Each structure stands twice: as structure tokens, then as C-alpha cells.
Amino acid sequence: MRVKIEEGFSDVEIVIKCPENTDEIKKIAAMLQSREKKLTGVKDGQTFLIDKQDVLYFESVDKRCYLYTAQDVYETPLRLYEIEETLTNEGFFRCSKSYLSIKAIGPPPISIAKKPYYTQGQ
Length: 122
Hints:
With 122 residues, this protein is α+β, with helices and mostly antiparallel strands. The protein is 16% helix and 36% strand. It has helices at residues 23-34, 80-87; strands spanning 38-43, 46-51, 55-61, 64-69, 73-76, 92-96, 99-102, 110-112, 115-117.
């Protein structure tokens, strides 16, 4: 892998040239994009850019990580700990081993006796 940095431009553009778009390449692209205000999510085989402010929480299930918005659920190529490192300063916190939530919302609901409740003050 070669890394080339050119200065003197008004905007930052990162281009990844590769023989094949592998999972590793997707992960690198997702990490680069997560530094901005957007996250990468996959739904129905299509890749979407999702604003961080639209994400309610992240969940890790069977070594896959999902991000939840009010409208949809997306799979993300990043691991939960990678998202946590990036979003801790953005108002997200680790509320359990498999959840990362925004502080204003709290953890996702847990169902006991078919009655949802929240574990943090609700």
C-alpha cells in the first residue's frame, strides 16, 4: 500500500485506488468518513452515508455491527470499539457490552414481561 499526500488544494479529497473493493477497503473508507459528520451504512446491498446526528444507537450482534436511525437499520463495517473511539466526544457512550448509545436517548429498550422499559431513569 502506498500513501501519497499532496498539499495546496482548497478541499480535502481522498481517493482509494484498489484492484477490488474488499471488506478491508470498506473498513478503511468507513473509518475515514466517520471522522467527518457522516457514517457508512449498508442496507439491501447499497451503501449509504448517514449523518451522525441521525443515529440513535449502535448494536453489535454476532460479530456484526448495526446502526439504528428513527427510520432504518444499517450494517456498518466498523466494530463497536472503533465507533466508540470516534464518537465518544460526539455524545455517545457505551451502555453495555453490545450497545453504544447517544446520551440524550439512553440505552435501547429492554423487554421484560412484554412491557418495555429503559434502564436509565425512565
